[in-house]
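Let us begin with a simple case.
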Amino acid sequence: MSREQRRLQLLETAASIVRAGGTDGLTLAHLAEEAGVTKPIAYGHFGTRAGLLIALYQHFDARQAEAVRVALAEQVRTLEDAIAILSSAYVDCVLRAGPEFGAIASALAATEEMDDFRQALRDGYVELYRDALARFVAFPPQGAHALLTGVIGAADVLSQAAASHRMSRTEAIDALSRIILGALASWRQEDL
């Protein structure tokens, strides 16, 4: 097995451990045992428990970002089309990842390593959304980053609510679409 294949196997095994029992039981030793490898292999890939949690989060996040990019590659004619694609891709990816994504994010929330990492991820999504919406929205030099950061926060909260069955997928997507549309209303190209 190549190093990358082994890493993917370890990440999938770690996600399975979190799915079955939450993050409390996720240690590098337990991961090695469940994956059928030695502890040095698990430590060699992730270094620390926080390193493993960050790698898991990145694994889920990469899938989410790719889902958004793929969805945006489809024909987008209007701002509403772009918003619908962004909203459904974000919510659907979190739903596919399952509740373990939220558990991993919560476990990492208490670590210093995660602060900078999560901020970099948010900034990446802000740029992804800005790029996807730029042909429909005249973003001002000031304020756009803050507004889109709020949109990403809403996307996180609504997606987690749908993943934990506090609302339906449709409700989460509809609410997120309305939030984005409302937030961008004053900057629409056609209104300028």
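The second case is a distinct protein. As before, the sequence precedes its structure tokens.
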Amino acid sequence: MNFQAGSQSSPSRRRFLKDSTTLAVSGALAPYILSKPALFAANSETLKVGLIGCGGRGTGAALQALNADKNAMLTAMGDIFDDRLQGSLRSLKNEEAIRSRITVNPDTSFIGLDSYKKVLESGVDVVLLATPPGFRPFHLKAAVEAGKHVFCEKPMATDAPGVRSVMESVRIAKQKKLALVAGFCWRYNAGERELMKRIHDGEIGEPMSLETVYNTGPLWVRPRKPEWTDMQYQMRNWYYFTWLSGDHIVEQAVHSIDKMAWAMKDVPPLKCVAQGGRQARTGKDYGHIFDHFSVVYEYPQGARGYHSCRQQAGCAQANADHIIGTKGIATIKAFGQLTTTGANPWRFRGERPDMYQVEHNELFASIRDGKPINDGDRMSSSTLIAIMGRMAAYTGQEITWEQALNSEEDLTKQALGQEGKAGDPEFRWDMKLYEAPVAIPGLTKFA
């Protein structure tokens, strides 16, 4: 698909809403499933699971997948680094409850930049995509074309061409009736589901101001070893390169942006302005990403969404959301209280089973029942909202939804020196990678 800004074939906000809103809203209000694996037995055939990306999140996803369905087996694993795969496999085999259903062996352990293809070719039914986000559009495309059900960790892309690729994969997944569950885990949490239902039912009136905050400390850094190529170094430190992570507003704080989108029934914002930069994390070891962002999103009917995030040591941390409506206020404190005040005061007091596990419970239940979940539209939208905020912060310009959706900035091809080259990018270990400069608002141009 070739999208040119301003052309008749360009994705538009109106078209996006037409394609996605009904599914997104119904998905947001889906009932919480307390199913246990034994209740999944619409059919009892073994589901073969393949893991692509064997870091901490991928390892957790594999554990949850096997816990979700008593007839699921982990049969293949793929990663670009052997030490990551072996560490993941050891960790999983330490789990007594699932050990007997792990049949991964040297012949189904795949290493390298093409390991995802080998996992897909190994005969798996379900794939778990948990590599650095820059690879997600290519891996999702390959998985859907291969007819696999998918758990797709967030975010789904790091740039607009990636989002458009994901949107096309979502369309094909719907045609093929493939399950596609997104790693936006809060959508699978019991308390947040109940709170959002109350918001959508009008209990706080019309949402007019939404504040989401995701302030954390710094993350890991892996010093470069002399023998590492550019690709090995950047892959070991993928978080600090925008083509791989999207920057922390897209990789981490997108969870908060997704909750904002959820509260607004997944109607995308019209435009945004933003600021951000590097104050505490300025050394070369930190690549070229920012350490703080602040974004103001403008929604229809005048509503405003205010998002801020930072990763700085020694600072106050927060992970909370406040949705201010015309009749009250809804508050989400991550892993804490959920309340509404005003005309309809309420506090969630129910159980909150592990949302990461619930994602997989519902994924596998939908496969067994022949009613596959597809989170594709909303996962694409939330990812683009975060990318849109990064674009506005990097450039210092007001960015509209249409501009963001139709941007031609391909971060992956830029990093690989393949800009303007048709087709998917080509990856090699010995590539000399382009290291983008740190963005300077007012000088960095929107593309």
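The radius of gyration is 21 Å. The chain has 15 helices and 15 strands.
Keep these points in mind for the review questions at the end of the chapter.
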